[in-house]
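Structure tokens please, single chain.
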Amino acid sequence: MRPSFQRRRTLSALCVGAVASLHPVFSISGTPDWPSRPIRVIVVYPVGGISDGITRALAQKLSHRLGVPVYVENRAGMGGGMGIGLLSKAAADGYTFAFSATSPLSLSPHLLPTSYDPFRDIAPVISVMQTPILLVGTPAFKGTRFQDLFTLGQGENPLRWATSGHATTGYLVMESVRRASKLDIVHIPYKGGGQQLMEALNGQFELLSTNMGETQLQYIRQGRLKPLAVGAPARLKQLPDVPTFAELGIAQANLTSSFGIFAPAKTPATILARLNAALNEILQLTDIRALLQSIDNMPTGGTATEFADQIAREWEVNRRLVQAQHLKHD
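Here you go.
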């Protein structure tokens, strides 16, 4: 379903309070007692990945600022769609939020049936980070560089390429490479990063799309994973010898993942404003920025309206890409 102009106006209206200020506000009319009890943040991916680690770091800082416990609950599945579905049905009282990539909103509805409407049921709160997408070879991949895909992929057995699921940016990277190269590739979808990373180390498949994170870097430095290409505007500081997909001539695969905080759509705008203000300040903290930049993730921040507009743009870009490549799943 295409986001209508009216829906985009409604989405922006829900978030308008977040535009007013980027300074902490601790007495907002309409919600003077918020928060008065613990806040839940659903991470829509498994324990142990970059999303889980960053959310827990943000939750600790947020708890200190708001004066109540902020706890993290992992609810993985459907490329993040399961957790976003839970968020869409949660009470819009300011005590349930989610950390997710934008893909369950801007990509999933084009590929799979969803239990939520991304523009009616979910309110973006704040953009948190941009994350490069890595293509790595596992111990089962006998090559050492991206060009080796073309030699190894010509045999009797197709290359097996794992992602975190059909409705993810890593899947789009795989499909873009497959269609540009005409390679015979078998897709192996997972629920999230933790399990697929362990099975990658055991050589259960040859290739893996994964978000750039500390664990991935550790295994690359140990020689257990082979970095072949990266989706990013430029080569990464941590992996300066690894080319971008654009450098390799597959610009359509040169994608990054966007992550942020989301709320149920009818959450009061004053609560969204306070949360946005607090998180903007947290994202400016030296230790949080250092944590993200040490793994070549870029802190973002900004207003809720800016984030909503970004998602609407991504929705349209992904719609065209999915239609052009005939990727829709039933």
